[in-house]
Amino acid sequence: MKYEVQCPYCHAAQSVDHAGGYAPMYADCPKCDNRFIVEPVRSGVMTYRTEDAPCCSDPDCRAMEMGDSGNE
Description:
There is one protein chain. The protein is mostly beta strands. Helix content is about 10%, strand content about 40%. The protein has one helix at about 60-65, and strands at about 1-5, 15, 25-30, 35-40, 45-50. The strands form two sheets. The protein has a three-stranded antiparallel β-sheet, with no helix packed on it. A two-stranded antiparallel ribbon has the order 1-2. The longest helix has 8 residues, at about 60-65. It is globular. It starts with a strand and ends in a 6-residue tail after the last helix.
């Protein structure tokens, strides 16, 4: 799936390819070279600065919170 989004840092318009579903993913802005988060939602798509995203919307934080910690 392709989303038309704006970089939350420099507001440059760009297209982002997404595998589908609602899982958040990282995208890189070609204009300002910042990494940001793209998260599909029911009403469209949200973009977040990596430092401002809630944990459930940050792919790395989400993986740590939902993944196996290795402790049993």
